[in-house]
Amino acid sequence: MADRYLIPARSHRVEQTIKRSRFLATATHAPSADEARAFINAIKAEFPDATHNCWAFAAGAPGDTASVGMSDDGEPHGTAGRPMLNTLLHSDVGEIAVVVTRYFGGTKLGTGGLVRAYSGMVQAVLETLPTREKVETVTLLASMPYNAVTRFKLLLPDHEAEVLEETYGTDAEFLLSLPEERADGFRLALTELTDGRGTAEPV
Question: What's the pTM value of the predicted model, to 2 decimals?
């Protein structure tokens, strides 16, 4: 799984009219299946009079299928939820849920038209979705002799490490948060800096 990937920065909505049917696509950050389902229920409550509230979510890293879900919500089988989910899984955004709300306008789209409409609405909301980077982090407890503290602090920016707590006892101890991908390099740098007397262990 990627250590860094894009996730929705906030909820976002787009609207289109396709052959007289009104479509609204609403996307939000969904780091778990439970949060995705809560969002879906909220959208259903917002648009209780809609013809359909079709949905899909992928509550993991981009392309990760371990926690996904979808629903055609009354549209012909395979014409809404599946194309929506496929569009999400092929995007570069993770931890996302999308509900496409449809108000039927009197003109049938056909199965191919429905697939294009629902996948197209997901694509449209993704194209303008505000995103931010998610970084998988680890927490380490670093311990070292006092004479290494100043040089140790100079190491931190290079490894994107943030000090959460400082304790001064027999040695100096620092509780750190840093990107998972930086942890091994940070440990090696600390060992070299302290001639092997400094340690950094996962908490």
Answer: 0.73
